[in-house]
Protein 1
Amino acid sequence: MVQLMKNAFIFALALMCFLPTSLAAQIKLKSVHDVVEVELLPGWRMENGQHMAGISIKMLPGWKTYWRAPGDGGIPTTVNWRGSKNLNSAKILWPRPEVFRTYGLRSIGYVDAVVLPVIIRPNSNAPVKVNASMHFGVCEEICLPVQIKLSGMLPSVPGPKNAAIRASLRTLPLTAKQAKVRSATCKFQPSAEGIRLELRLDVPPLAGRSEILSIEPGNKNIWVSEPKTRRSGNIFKASALLVPQAAGTAISRNNLRLTLISSKSSVEIFGCD
């Protein structure tokens, strides 16, 4: 079990002077220890020599944490693996998230609980000793930034496949081929505010309701507005504003990562023509 750091930061206290006394009193009782439990799931060594592990995040009912691209109302998740041994690289696989609104801002993430599968590439066939730090946020009426330590041993021999990790893997986004995406085209137009992006995806409707689109530009120095979208048959169109935050920042269509998300499915598309 991962132990939450005693000195976890809680920026919600800074908001207390703007809140009613009764609500401020409730916030004083909130801490990350009360709200969230995090566990490193050891997982199993795969036939290709890589290791499938997982990070389990369980929260109080109604609380949520955030996806890889959290939206304007979310807090991004980061993991620093540098204290680990026999670990060459680690990649988090993100299950299909939910979309919700917080004070009018769109957020993308997970409610109550989520298991994040992690593919780890060891340097050798020996066990992997994880000693990493993780930063993320949990929110309800208030938001609590969380800083924790991830630690544990990942065995070097094949073992039983953890049911929670396997269930999470089944909710990963479809590939463009699996979703029968026929084309993804984009057009960039300079404007007074930034660069207007027009997207046209030829993709059948996803199972479920309420399709939304997340646009990741592949550059942290580029802000992307919430897209305006519309669908007609298999054609899904979107328009968004891209605003570079630093002079000389380049925008590449090949680096765009487009994720179409519904209530039951999702698909990832990399780049556009």
Protein 2
Amino acid sequence: MPSELVSKTMRTRRLPHIWCPGCGHGILMRDVCQAIYNLDLDPDLVSIVSGIGCSSRAAGYMNYNTLHTTHGRAIAFATGIKMARPDMHVIVITGDGDAAAIGGNHLIHACRRNIDITVVVFNNQIYGMTGGQYSPTTPTGEKGTTAPYGNIDGVFDIPRLAEAAGATYTARGDCYHQPQMVKLIEEGIRHKGISIIDGVSICPTYYGRKNHKGSAVEMMRWQQEHMVDVKRASKMSPEDLEDKVLTGELSRIEGRPEYTEEYDKIIHRAGGDR
């Protein structure tokens, strides 16, 4: 990370971070910072909102208007900020459990409303901070502290869930393909409406160790070999795609009314002024 990027986007006095060695969350946090930096956004008009979990530590390291909120409620807090200040760039950093388990109801209703916030899910497929419990994205059959004989639940595909709920921009990136992840976040911030970006992370400490995935390097190598951009996937056979995970821009709808703009129309009809 260039020194200027660190000095302009990070609270350097709080570094180094406390994530475990090999955790992918530091890479994803850097990607969010890089996207904000590349877009040359006014820092005073950027708000970073996080809930509770490993991913949510990121808000404390980022030098913007930041909220570290309650478990599963980051999107609800972000909605309040955007309603009060539609001019703000509101970015939610959340985990797979924070967003899709306890926060799942807020996720689907924010998508339904199409409110102009950007949600970046740091998806490490496990509850890391609280001891390795399985999450809504832990693959079926894989183990966690609450599934010592294997998880029997199906898995949420967060972008598909969000699209079905009404999200107008969905995407997936990962730790290894870092330039792609930055571009997806940039596009999400630019998009007028809600953007849901699934950032596939790695957790060698809990998920990797419990499921014999090897070192952090080996987990990153798995991403290199198995995460496939949708454009490349369109030219691959079904057999070649069997064990692959699609990345890139997965869906985009332009022109659908944005929630705060629609709310302003209601205020105007009622004879008020924001």
